[in-house]
Amino acid sequence: MSKEKQLIKSILNSILPILLAFIIGGIVIAGIGENPLSTYWILLEKSFLTSTGFMNTLHYASPLIITGLAIAVTFKANLYNMGVEGQLLLGGFFAGICGAYIHNMNPLLHKLICFAVGILCGMLFALIPAILKAKCGVNEMVVTLMLNYAMAKLLEFLSTGVFRDLSSGYVATPTIAEGAMFSRFGRSRLTMFFFIAIVVLIIMYIVMKKSKLGYELTALGMNPEFSEAVGMNTGKKTIVLMLLSGALAGLAGAGFMMSEQFKYTLSFSGTPGLGWDGMLIALLGGHSPIGILIAAVFYSALKTGSDNINMYTNVPKEIVALIQGLIILFLAVKFISDNRDIFARFKKVGKDKKEAA
After folding, report:
1. Which of 331, 338, 344, 341 is nearest to 16 (CA)?
2. pTM strictly above 0.85
3. Residues 51-99: pLDDT tens digits?
4. Residue 183, exposed/middle/buried by CB under 10 A (0-12, 13-18, 19+)?
5. Which residues of 30-55 are buried (b: 16+ CB within 10 A; e: fewer)?
6. Which of 129, 164, 310, 340 has its CA 20 to 30 Å from the CA of residue 147?
């Protein structure tokens, strides 16, 4: 298949699930008695067409861009790091601890230390399944998936115990120092963290598209046996890619801590969680850095606009969760595969029925 056809196929496989999800969402909105077009217009207007709304959309897209990259860099190599959520939580937690317990430090240095700690924590947590996969052949999907829950419980124990802020009325760690916080631009929530995310995106674009490691991860994803047969040390590459993914997840957690949350709470990453959202974004973006950027901004716009839907219409904001769920469902259907598209399959079934009749 030519590059142009491959690109068209990827775009259609990303757009069709979104269109179908919005059509079904529109039917539900009409069932409530509201106008679907007006509702979607409010979503679009408040997320993109006002300066504050657009800047807020970019702000919420920042961690999603990085978690999407963390997922893509392993999924593209047929490695399934399902532990991005846990790595993000660990990175965010200890970045917050450094931000809160270190005082009287240069703000720039303070932020760099928080980022370094977040990245290191993410890498260390990703190292466990990486070694198990590379040295023992353990299924990394199961290990990383289960470690998420173990990490959530460990951080719950730490935040309710030794690191709990006793002056807070709920479970939370102490608020980070002002020097570790990113300042917001104007009335929006946008901070410098968005531009850091864009720099990371550019670096990852070069790594994935122009570097030797990028070609190796593509080869590993297409045919791991052949890659090993031609001399690639697949175990070493597995560890490198998992560490890179963990570093990105830790970076996202640290940035989210310093630009949005400022303290660790039991709902730090939201529902379902930035790491899980990153998986949807990587799938929507076709594991391409540019696609991930577009998907992250789109996904963030849904979140930004959901509150406004609730405010200006009688449609509950949970409609956005329904649309997100439908997108995930339809993403599981590969409408256009490498060999044949789904519409051709339906045509073939119809033709077979006619012939049978």
Report:
1. 331
2. yes
3. 888 999 999 999 999 999 999 999 988 888 999 999 999 999 999 999 9
4. exposed
5. eeeebebeebbebbeebbeeeeebbb
6. 164
